[in-house]
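The freezer alarm interrupted the setup, so I double-checked each line after restarting. Inputs confirmed:
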Amino acid sequence: MTQASIITIGDELLIGQVIDTNSAWMAQELNRSGIRVVRRVAVGDVWDEIWAALDEEQKQADIILITGGLGPTADDITKPLLCKYFDGSMIIDEAAKQNVLDIFTKLNRPIIERNLKQAEVPDVCTVLQNKRGTAPGMLFHKNEKVFISLPGVPHEMQGLMETEVIPFLLTQFRFPAIIHKTLLTAGVGESFLAELISNFETALPAHIKLAYLPNYGMVRLRLSATGLNADALESEIGQQFENLKSIVADHLVTDMDEPMQNVLGKLLTAKGKTVCTAESCTGGYIAHLLTSIPGSSAFFDGGVISYSYRAKEDLLRVDKSTLESVGAVSEEIVLQMARGALKNLGSGYVIAVSGIMGPGGGMPGKPAGTVWIAVGNNNKIQAHQLHFRFDRMRNIQLTAVNALNLLRKFILAEI
Amino acid sequence: MTQASIITIGDELLIGQVIDTNSAWMAQELNRSGIRVVRRVAVGDVWDEIWAALDEEQKQADIILITGGLGPTADDITKPLLCKYFDGSMIIDEAAKQNVLDIFTKLNRPIIERNLKQAEVPDVCTVLQNKRGTAPGMLFHKNEKVFISLPGVPHEMQGLMETEVIPFLLTQFRFPAIIHKTLLTAGVGESFLAELISNFETALPAHIKLAYLPNYGMVRLRLSATGLNADALESEIGQQFENLKSIVADHLVTDMDEPMQNVLGKLLTAKGKTVCTAESCTGGYIAHLLTSIPGSSAFFDGGVISYSYRAKEDLLRVDKSTLESVGAVSEEIVLQMARGALKNLGSGYVIAVSGIMGPGGGMPGKPAGTVWIAVGNNNKIQAHQLHFRFDRMRNIQLTAVNALNLLRKFILAEI
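Predicted 3D structure, all chains:
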C-alpha cells in the first residue's frame, strides 16, 4: 500500500510556539484520497536535521510531503537545502515571478528584491504554482520516491494540495480504498463503552479497526476499513457501522464525524426553529460555536454576553434584588437569563449559562468550575448544575458542549 | 547539549481527526527548562511503527517522551509494547490501583475489571503517579537514554509533566540556558520587516537566532539565545531585544509573547476603563477572545451578538429603516451598533462588527469577506472597511484580531 510521510519544518514547532494544524489537515486530505499517512515528523530550521529527516522518511514512505521554511527571510533554509539535496541549480521560474508581480500589483505594495527571490526554484523540480501566495510548491523525484515541498502558510498549502498535489498523486499511484465511519457518543466514559462493545470489537475482521477518541467529555468511535474493492468495502463497513450504532444507541449523538453544534444546528433547521443564547461565564463561546457553521443565521438569532450585572439587568431583564440576594451563579438567575433572552430575541429555544470558569472567582459553596446551564423554550425551561475541574479554557469548552447537548436532548424529548 | 524527542501515538493523528496540541505544550515546557526538542514524531497505533520510532528517536535524542496509547481500550497497545521493548513483565502497581479506586469512588461510578487494568505496569519501569486520571506515567532507562511514557489526555499529561517529569529531568541532566524573547508586530508583512531588520539580523552572533512567525496578518519576531551562563545570556539577549524593539517601534504591538486580546485587556485595565462588544458576523468570537483571559470581568462588561435584524433593533437600538435601505453590512449600521452597545452597556469603549464571513452570503458590491468594524468611545467612533479572502473560520479570526487592534490603536492615539 502506498504510504506517505509528512515533514513539517520550523523552530517554532519545536519550542511549542505554534500548534501544527497543517499536518492534521494534510493527513485528512491524503486519507480521503486513499493515501495512508504512516508518520509525521517535525524538525527545526536546522540544515542537518532537515537533511536527516529527508533521508529517514523515504525509507518508510513512497511520498514525502514537506511544509514550511519557504518564506522570504533568512531563517527559511528549506529551498537551498532541497536544491542541494536533489543536485539542482537555482533558476528563476517565469510563471512564479509573474505571480509575485501580480500579487504585489493587486495589493498595491512596492515590490522589493527579496520578494522576487520567491520565484527562484531548483531547476530539477516541477513547479507547482501557488495562486494564494508568493512561495511556489516544488515537486522532486529521487529513488522512485516523490518529494513535494509546500509553503507553511495554511491557506496557501491547502490551495496547492487541492489543485496540484492530490490530482498529481492520483495519476501516479493506484491507491486502495480507505473508508472511515465515525459516530459521537455523550454521557458515558471510554471504559464503559469498551465493555458495551467488547463482543463487537473482538468479532471485527482484521481489515476493520475500531478507535476510541475521547473529546470534551464525549467519545467518538471510529471504524476504519482498508481494501481493494471500494464498493464491497463500503457495504461491509456500512453493515458493521449499523451494528455499532445499534449497540451504542442510548448514548448516540450523531452517526457523522461532526461536532455537537452541527448536530444541534441541523435539528433546529429540521424543526424550522431558531435559538438564542445568554452567556455569562462562557463569554460568547457557545454563540461562536453555533456561528462557525456556514448559514447559521437560519437557526441562530443572536445572544447576549452578560458579564456585568448591568448587562444582565438591562439586556436580559434579570431582577436586581435576586442578583443581590442569591448571586449571579445560581439557578434563579440562569432561569431569569433564559427567559429574558427568549423575550428579547423572540427565538424558539434558548441556552443560558452562568458560572465560574476559574482560576479565580471561586467562593464558599461555589468553587471555580461551578456552572448553571438552562435550556428550554417558551413553555418550559430546565436548569442543570454541573462542575468542572480543569483550566479556564477547558472549563469554557466543556460548559459550551454540555449546554449544546442539553438543548439537543431537550428538543428530542419534546418529539 | 541534552536533546529530547517527542513521540505521539495514535491513528487519529495520522488521519487528521485530531490536532496534536500535546507536543506543542510539552515542547514549551521542556524549552523553558533548557531542554532542546530536536524532533517530534507522530505514529499510528501500529506495533512495528511504534517500535521503529523508539529505535530511531534514541539515535538523536537523550530523552524520549511518549504520549498516547495508554487508554483502557483494545486500540491502545503502547503499554504491552513498552513492556516487551524494555524486557519487563506486567505487574500491578499498588499505588496506581489505589488511585483508580479513589477516582471511581469520588465519581461514584461502578468500577470494572478494565479500569483496574490501568494499574498494571511493566516491572522494569519507575511509576509516575497520575493524580488527574487512571493511566500512570512510566519511566524507563535503556542504553543511557531516558524514555518516559505519558497518557495522551492533555490535562493528565500536563499534570505529570509538571509534578514528575520536569523535576526528575532537572536532577538527571545539566542543561544550558535557552532564552526566548518574542515581540508582536501588526500592519506590515514579513518581507517588509525582513528588509527593515536585515542589518540587525546579519550582525547577530551565532548563538542568537531570529525567527519570523506570521500569524493572522501580524508577525511575531522571536530571538532565541543558547549558552552556559544564564545571567550573561539574559543580559546579552536583553540588549539585542531592545535594539530590535527600537527598529520595529512603529509596528510594535507588544514586547511579550502574548496575544492581541491580552494587550488590549492590559491597556483597558491600566486606564480603569471597560469595553463592550456588538458582534454580527464574528458571532461572539471577539467576546470569547476577551473573556478567555482570567479576570476579564475587570475590563469587559458584555456584549450583544446580533445575527437577526430584531436583535440589532431591540438590543442595539439600530434603526429599522436604515437597515432596510443600506443593509446590515454598512458603515451606518456598524456605527449604530457601536452607539447602541455603548448606551445599553454603559462601557468606556466599544467594538462593533458587521460583515459577510462566507462562503455564502456575498452580494454585488459586497463579496464574502467584506466587513465593517467600528471602534470608539462616547466622544468619537471610527468605522473601517476591510476585506478578507479566506475561509469562514479564518475570516472570523482575522476580523476579530483586526477589531481588537483597531481599538488598541484608538486608545493609544487618545493619550
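Quick read of the result. The two ends of chain B are 48 Å apart (CA to CA).
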